[in-house]
Design a protein that fits this description.
mainly beta, Rubrerythrin, domain 2, 4-stranded antiparallel β-sheet, about 0% helix, elongated
Length: about 50
């Protein structure tokens, strides 16, 4: 079962990206390095509720 995950920037807290994840294989929250258009640089994005 795949679930929609919203990724938010850790620096400015803006929600920039959505992706899907498998809850069974990855029970912990996603964390990816993505480009933040507001910060205008690559930052860590974490999954929000």
């Amino acid at each position: 079962m795949r679930d929609i995950a919203i990724l938010a920037c850790t620096e400015c807290k803006e929600r920039n990206y959505t992706t899907t994840r498998n809850k069974k294989t990855t029970p912990e929250r996603l964390e990816k390095v993505k480009f933040c258009p507001r910060c205008r640089k690559q930052t860590t994005h974490k999954e929000t509720k």
